[in-house]
Design goal:
mainly alpha; 54% helix
Length: 192
């Protein structure tokens, strides 16, 4: 297995500790802890695999407290990587607003602050769908990649929600308590 493949496997194993189980793996590698938040966010963005890069959206949706590490993560990245993190962070902000009622039963809820939408030229008072579309157009312009970016962002939240629903499927009486997806509540995250 190539070095980047083994790094990808380690990252996916760490994501599992955070309760993010929808990424497939090629090995049975287990992680004992999760790297520090700024390092985790930066390392996800640096991954050559798009499925792992976009998982940063799932991390921010399921662990919004990790957004505090965003400034330190941005310092670790090259300018194009920084731009990618800004786009994905902003996508997470918008998706959190759009899917709030579906996410709240599964994650530790904390609104993500909208830090970059104005800088990215998003219309401030437009509906969320329009803002996601504008974000996708902006990312396409910046990257030159003809990708359905809004669909890519939404696919992450759909995978996350489906994974959480499957995790909670075996609860005998889901109406008796909030079904929390095991989003790594007791996970050890190393300090910076």
């Amino acid at each position: 297995m190539a070095l980047s493949d083994s790094e990808e496997e380690r990252l996916v194993a760490e994501l599992e500790l955070l309760g993010i189980h929808f990424l497939s793996r090629q090995t049975a590698e287990r992680a004992a802890s999760v790297r520090p938040p700024a390092v985790l966010l930066a390392d996800l963005i640096r991954q050559p695999s798009a499925r792992v890069r976009t998982a940063v959206i799932a991390v921010l949706l399921s662990h919004p407290d990790l957004a505090e590490a965003l400034p330190a993560a941005l310092q670790r990245l090259s300018p194009p990587e920084r731009q990618t993190l800004l786009f994905f962070y902003t996508a997470a902000v918008l998706l959190q607003q759009q899917y709030a009622s579906q996410l709240q039963p599964y994650v530790a809820w904390q609104p993500l602050p909208d830090r970059f939408a104005v800088d990215l030229g998003l219309p401030p008072s437009a509906p969320i769908r329009e803002r996601l579309a504008a974000l996708g157009r902006r990312q396409r312009q910046q990257t030159g990649k003809v990708v359905n970016w809004p669909g890519t962002y939404e696919q992450v939240v759909r995978h996350l929600l489906r994974s959480c629903e499957l995790e909670c499927h075996d609860i005998p009486d889901p109406s008796s308590a909030i079904c929390r997806c095991p989003m790594g509540i007791n996970t050890r995250i190393r300090a910076d």
